[in-house]
Amino acid sequence: MLSATEIPSERLLLRGALHDADREGFVELHTDPEVQAYIGGPQPRSDVERRFDAAIADGTSRSGNYVIADNTTNRLVGTLMLAHRSADRPGHVTEDGGELELGYVLRRGAWGAGFAFEAATAALRAATDELPDQPVLLVTQTANERSMKLAARLGFRPIGTFEEYGAEQALCTAPLSVLRI
Ligand SMILES: CC(C)(COP(=O)(O)OP(=O)(O)OC[C@H]1O[C@@H](n2cnc3c(N)ncnc32)[C@H](O)[C@@H]1OP(=O)(O)O)[C@@H](O)C(=O)NCCC(=O)NCCS
């Protein structure tokens, strides 16, 4: 698992810690119907606020989970996850499961500027620096064109599809060593 608590890039800072000032952006990410269109749908604001409060009170960051922040304003642009995909979920390329999986979510206003690509390449570079070569997964709804495009640009290859959450999911993968970093 990635141990870095902060990963810098040209325009961004990936930080493990959630800050009080992230509330507005965090709530927007989870309640915006367009952002949530392919990842489970918008959630009730009160539930999201409660989760945010719990995460702030807890104070510890979940390893592999990062806030993508603008490195000049520190404003939350999105979130990124590079963590193990639980073996009991569908979508694996190894017998035992638990492979590293990449996921990303940007605020709607931050789409179209290359931020997700920049954040993902920075996280994958950090992973390459500290972890042995291994397969990395990216699972995204086949209908999620922006995400499929980003996956391809990063060097992931679709190898099949499966059903999860009532939708067709594309299982994409590549060895850490050949991803676009
Ligand atoms: C998936 C998602 C992160 C993609 O965001 P994105 O901004 O399209 O992705 P990228 O960071 O790769 O940016 C690519 C776009 O930025 C443009 N761009 C501008 N400046 C750029 C730069 N410096 N570098 C790269 N791309 C740049 C590209 O031309 C491209 O534009 P286009 O959409 O008009 O083709 C975003 O749509 C999202 O958050 N969706 C909701 C969450 C979700 O579905 N996540 C998937 C679950 S894994």
Automatic annotation (TrEMBL):
UniProt feature coiled coil, ranges: none
Protein origin, superkingdom: Bacteria
Keyword Acyltransferase in record: yes
Record keywords, A-Z: Acyltransferase, Transferase
GO molecular function, a single term: acyltransferase activity
InterPro entries cross-referenced by the UniProt entry: Acyl_CoA_acyltransferase (IPR016181), GNAT_dom (IPR000182), N-acetyltransferase (IPR051531)
Entry protein name: GNAT family N-acetyltransferase
Record organism: Streptosporangium vulgare
Lineage of source species: Bacteria, Bacillati, Actinomycetota, Actinomycetes, Streptosporangiales
